[in-house]
Amino acid sequence: MDILAIDIGFGFTKATDGNRSVIFKSVLGEATDLQFQGTILDAPADEHMQLEIDGRSLFIGDLAERQSNVRFFTLDQEQFVTRFVKYLALAAAARLVNGFIPVNLVTGLPIGYYKQYKDELATLLSGEHRVFLTDGSGKREEKSIKINKVKVIPQPFGSLFNLMLNDLGEVGDKRLVKEKIGIVDIGFRTSDYTVSDKMRYSERGSRTTDSGIARAFNIIATKLREKSGVNIELYRLHEAVDRGSIRIRGKEYELKSLTEQVFGQLASSVANEIDRLWADDWDMDTIVLTGGGGVVLAKYLQPLINGQVVVVDAASDARLCNVDGYWKFGKHLWAKGVIPAPSTMPAGNR
Ligand SMILES: Nc1ncnc2c1ncn2[C@@H]1O[C@H](COP(=O)(O)OP(=O)(O)OP(=O)(O)O)[C@@H](O)[C@H]1O
Ligand SMILES: [Mg+2]
User: What's the predicted TM-score (pTM) here?
Assistant: First the structure.
């Protein structure tokens, strides 16, 4: 059985089939009829992600950001599950599956919303989905995505499994199995905290908060609105913050010092949350920082955290740590038919 893993984040949707990965902004837009497709002169061609599903034609990710007049983006969990998740997941799946061959899917939810939405999410995604993909040249292709089984796990477990399991889904790093590990997964909207104590899940040490990168971006967007009068959608700030400046209506605004300041503030909120949440867990062996935001905040956070902090491999894209772990977990579950000990899962999943 082929295994597919999809991490549907508020900022980015990530997916892998074990060989190939896809990553795109979690933005949807109404498809429009493009008069001219492709690039002007030698500009690099972006992926054209256009999907027809349930009678709706949607642009996804960058294409929606650039070309749709009506765009949809949310930071609300309820709206995200009911109006976004299915389209984002199927857009990712359509890129990776061959069609007609059923797959088993591993996906996740933030710890704090796990119990509430896990059954709804599994129901939304399982079964057969007929979609049409349109490529950059306008060619339309039908795909049938058959999702056999769906396993939903708490998102930060992905990064834990990624560290523990090898590509065969077997326990590779025995040391981690014996340790008490705290995981901090900082994403675009949420920060997820969890503890694995000799592979046992700790409810006490697990929580979801809204200390994500978007909180820092919100302050930057507010400042830019005051200065320029333009309301900038948060998902359009990634490249500008990375570059350290933004040009709005011809005027250049420097972002480096403001970014340093707001990332510093966000890092101290996260450090405070760690201190409070893990006050009784002074026997923690290692704290793992993961998620795309984890890597971005690492240099601000490390001096504020006591104990041994491990930042997931910065050479690879940290946004993919959860989804890579989901995939390995899928291997672990289904490749050999071995079910992991129930004590590794929070209540509600046993
Ligand atoms: N190459 C990159 N491109 C864009 N963002 C990056 C990159 N590397 C790190 N980041 C950071 O990663 C963040 C997104 O991280 P991630 O994909 O883990 O969030 P998410 O899973 O979408 O959000 P959430 O977990 O809250 O649902 C961005 O806000 C940005 O700060
Ligand atoms: Mg995430």
Answer: 0.92
